[in-house]
Amino acid sequence: MTRPNAVGRTLTLACSVVGAMVVALDGTVLTVVQPALRHDLDASFAQVQWTSTGYLIAVASLLVFAGRLGDRYGHRRLFAVGTLGFAAASAGVGLAPDVGSVIALRVAQGVFGALLQPATLGMLRAAFPPDRLGMPIALRTSAIGLAAAAGPVLGGALATHLGWRSVFFLSVVPALVIGVLALVVRVPDPRGQGPAPGLDLPGAGLLALALACLVHTLVGVPKSGWTTATAAGSLVAVVAGGAFVRHERRTAGPLVPPRLLHSAAVGPALGVLVTASASMFGALYVATYFLQDVLALDPLHSALTALPLAVMMVVGAPLSAVLLRRAGPRRTLTGAMAVLALGVLALSRLDEASGPVAAGGAFVLVGAGFGTVMVAATAVVVRHAPVADAGVAGGLQQTAMNVGPALGIALATTLMTALASPAAGHPRRPGDAFLPAMPPTLTALAVVAALGTLLATRTPTLTPNPNPNPATAPAPDSTPRPPSGASPAPAPHGARGCRSAE
Predict the structure, then answer these.
(1) How far apart are CA 341 and CA 337, in angstroms?
(2) 299-327 and 266-289 are packed helices; what angle lies between their axes, rounded to 10 degrees?
(3) In terms of Cα–Cα distance, which of 371, 310, 365, 358 is closest to 342?
(4) What is the rounded distance in angstroms from the CA atom of residue 27 to the CA atom of residue 155?
(5) DSSP state of 359
(6) pTM (2 decimals)?
(7) Burial 337-349 (b: 16+ CB within 10 A, else e)
(8) Please, what is the angle between helix 390-419 and helix 45-73, to 10°?
(9) Among residues 339, 71, 88, 360, which one has the least CA distance to residue 190?
(10) pLDDT tens digits for the chain (502 residues)?
(11) CB pairs under 8 A, 24+ apart, for 295-303?
């Protein structure tokens, strides 16, 4: 297996970082311009909501299948198609004549986003040795945190001076640049020996249906509660999910290889990502209402109060990589989940008398814990996956990061609705009915983080090389040894067909 040289690794890292940042930036700027979009296109609230929901359903339902496409046809190629398509769809939204066109183009963005997101991790897995993946993943996490912090500011500034359409052109140029770069620059792509992995179209369809219904239900619950539609969606998700599991157990070439989900490292790490993102995004959802309705801060000042969370993700991610290398995955993840739970508990203690220092300190803990979890858990998932399954592993990681926030926000909304004080009657302020429900809701989200802490204790103490050098162990007589200094090929059951280097 031939890995890229230093220049190739640098270019791969740049593409991965910028690609992840473009997607994160697009998601944050949209929320800022939705009111202006609604007024300009004379759209209903439901139509505007579908500009987000349509994207989420498309991307979440296709991530794992897109990862398998990258395993089969090359992550660099899928990344280029995804970024160039994402750029074209973004420009189309900026030129759309009506809200229906915006919704359709946002769904297209979701499809292309699903192609490029697993590829950003698959390319890193292929380009870097397993013991050097921590820092590239940390830099990718820092870029996502920076985009999350800068998105509302950039989006607000552009929308104020140039109109809402301008924010959708923000990511066009960088996406075009890295998309063309990924096509033009010839970076060696490690290839295994043996047949190319199958696509398992029936399994992909069942998984897409299950995830689409799950995300639609989780997005719908915060707005309309448990209606007939949301209940039906959850039922379809369960049935399709059960059918998917049954199909994967029986098919000869499953979409998700059992060696990934049965891994002592990958399964717990994915569970940690789901619980961490559910706890963090649910807490941030509640905290936003607290800052604006209870403390009466405007959107800008509430964003500045929560800014330490993003700052800790940006600054702390590279430090997390060092901690992961020195302490190992288990201690790093367990400690980070505990810090995250402590931060959510600190948010639950805020009240009307709390100042920006108390709130900022809680956000520091949440950001430090969540940023470390993202780096460590992602490194575990990607590093323990064979190169032939790197795309599927990246798709599973991205799926966890899409389902977790939807789950956390749905849980927070359900609890806040159920626990809001009925004695408030006609509250003098918006926060009067909200405030009594805030502590128990955030405490429940802290319990979710604590469950993630328990899952973290099941991750490995060390992260070994998943493809050990066969030169250090006896090889079967029927299998020739690789030349001295060559990297071993992946195991035959996860191997890929030989193709020319991309």
Answers:
(1) 6
(2) 160
(3) 365
(4) 10
(5) H
(6) 0.80
(7) bbbbbbbbbbbbe
(8) 160
(9) 71
(10) 456 677 778 888 888 899 988 888 887 777 778 878 888 888 887 788 888 888 988 998 999 999 999 888 888 889 999 999 999 999 999 999 999 999 999 999 999 999 998 888 888 888 888 778 888 888 888 888 888 777 777 877 788 788 889 888 988 999 999 999 888 776 555 544 455 667 888 999 999 999 999 988 888 877 777 788 888 888 999 999 999 999 988 888 888 888 777 777 888 999 999 999 999 999 988 888 888 878 887 777 777 888 888 889 888 888 888 888 888 889 999 999 999 999 999 999 988 888 778 888 999 999 999 999 999 999 888 888 777 788 888 899 989 988 898 899 889 888 888 887 655 444 455 556 678 888 999 999 999 999 999 999 988 876 444 444 433 333 343 334 443 333 333 333 333 333 333 3
(11) 295/352, 295/354, 295/431, 296/429, 296/431, 300/156, 303/152, 303/153
Report the alpha-carbon angle 86-91-94, nearest 5: 130
Q: Compute how many other C-beta atoms are within 10 angstroms of the C-beta atom of residue 473.
A: 7
Q: From residue 277, how far is each of 118, 372, 401 by CA, in Å?
A: 18, 12, 6
For 489, which DSSP code?
P
Residue partners of 179: CB distance under 8 A and separation at least 6: 79, 80, 82, 83, 84, 87
Report the amino acid identity of residue 235.
L
Could you tell me the two tokens for 465?
A: 């090389």
Alpha-carbon gap, residue 176 to 80, rounded angstroms: 9
Q: Among residues 123, 105, 91, 92, which one has the least CA distance to residue 19?
A: 123
- Give the whole-angstrom CA distance, residue 68 versus residue 398: 13
